[in-house]
Design a protein that fits this description.
Elements: H1 5-18, H2 25-40, H3 42-48, H4 58-65, H5 72-107, H6 116-124, H7 131-139
């Protein structure tokens, strides 16, 4: 069975960046999204969602279930958080595209998750990776 390199690499890069150590890209993005929504929707969170257990999208679902009652400020915060998430997904796609060959060449046997692919590229093979991948890493601030 022939594997699809783009799909596999996209998945592997996404998993790798999801599991980078705290303080790396995914943590900054998550904190930014939460802060954006907490700040912009403070009133709505207190009024409509204070009894909702956080996690698995329940807070966002609560806000959307009250979308006819949310303020313009909260609506904008939700839009802004969605835009931030879209930019992050674009970053992952860019990295997957630019580092595809390097991941296959140097990290094919590395199991995705817990930052292992990032470690493989950034620490163990940094001096061997292509200029394209190196530039993508620089462009996305992973250095």
């Amino acid at each position: 069975m022939q594997k699809s390199p783009d799909k596999g690499v996209d998945q592997r890069v996404a998993e790798s960046l999801e599991n980078l150590p705290e303080g790396q890209v995914d943590q900054r993005v998550a904190e930014s999204l939460v802060t954006t929504i907490e700040t912009g929707c403070e009133t709505e969170l207190k009024s409509y969602c204070s009894q909702v257990t956080p996690g698995e999208g329940r807070i966002i679902a609560c806000l959307y279930s009250h979308n006819d009652k949310i303020s313009g400020r909260c609506e904008y915060a939700l839009y802004d958080a969605a835009a931030q998430l879209e930019r992050f997904i674009g970053t992952l796609s860019y990295l997957a595209q630019e580092c595809n060959n390097d991941l296959e060449k140097y990290c094919d046997s590395v199991r995705a998750g817990e930052g292992r692919l990032a470690e493989c590229l950034l620490e163990k093979n940094r001096d061997k990776i292509s200029n394209r991948c190196s530039q993508a890493i620089k462009d996305t601030g992973l250095e």
